[in-house]
Amino acid sequence: MVKIVHAQTVLPENVLEELKRKTGENATKDAIAKAIEHYLMCPYTHEEPLERRLEEVIKKKKRA
Q1: What is the CA radius of gyration of the chain?
Q2: Across the 64 residues of the chain, what is the mean pLDDT of every consecutive 10-residue run?
Q3: What's the longest Cα–Cα distance across the chain?
Q4: pTM of the full predicted structure?
């Protein structure tokens, strides 16, 4: 049997609206659930942050 817990967070309104847009969900709970599921399943979750990777690519291009 799966134990279900209630989780709560505070988000800026614009972040929540962006999350809803990206997930295609209208309800807050559905958008958050979809985002969490994606985060847990995505093979790239534990890689370096995107900003750091982009900075490295830019540095390499400048060197070339």
Answers
A1: 17
A2: 91 96 96 93 71 75 76
A3: 57
A4: 0.64
